[in-house]
Amino acid sequence: MQEYIIPEGLYAVTVHFGSSEEIGPTWDRWVNEWLPGSGWKADPSRPNYNYEWYQNQCLPPKLTLTFLCTPVVKIEL
């Protein structure tokens, strides 16, 4: 396991329940459906567009909890 220090700033966070193999569709809904209508957008000035923070890694896949984090900035109108 590696440890990373992510850049400071605001992050939008959602939760994925289930195996890591099933994260793709959750990311797609998160980025393509929720984020555009939220008043926030992905912050292009920060590297590593998305982060996954895994919890409960030793449990059965259906009980695995993953935080999906996207660096964001407020959309200015």
Can you characterise this structure?
The protein is of the alpha+beta class and 77 residues long. It has one domain (11-74). It contains one helix and four strands; from the N terminus they run E-H-E-E-E. The chain has one helix at residues 23-34, and strands spanning 11-17, 40-42, 51-55, 65-74. Strands 1, 2, 3 and 4 form a four-stranded antiparallel beta sheet that branches. The termini are far apart. The model has no long low-confidence stretch (mean pLDDT 82).
Care to give the gist of this entry?
With 77 residues, the protein is an alpha+beta fold. The chain contains 1 helix and 4 strands.
Work out the helicity level: 10-25%
SSE topology string: EHEEE
The total domain count is 1
Kindly report the average pLDDT value: 82
Tell me the fraction of residues in β-strands, as a range.
25-35%
Sequence stretches where pLDDT stays below 50 over 5 or more residues: none
SSE class = alpha+beta
Shape: globular
Task: Tell how many strands the DSSP assignment holds.
Answer: 4
Distance from N terminus to C terminus (CA atoms, Å) equals 42 Å
**Radius of gyration computed on alpha carbons:** 13 Å
The number of helical segments is 1
Main sheet overview: 4 strands, antiparallel
Give keywords.
32% strand; 4-stranded antiparallel beta sheet; alpha+beta; 77 residues
Per-chain topology:
Layout: E1 11-17, H1 23-34, E2 40-42, E3 51-55, E4 65-74
Antiparallel strand pairs: 1-4, 2-4, 3-4
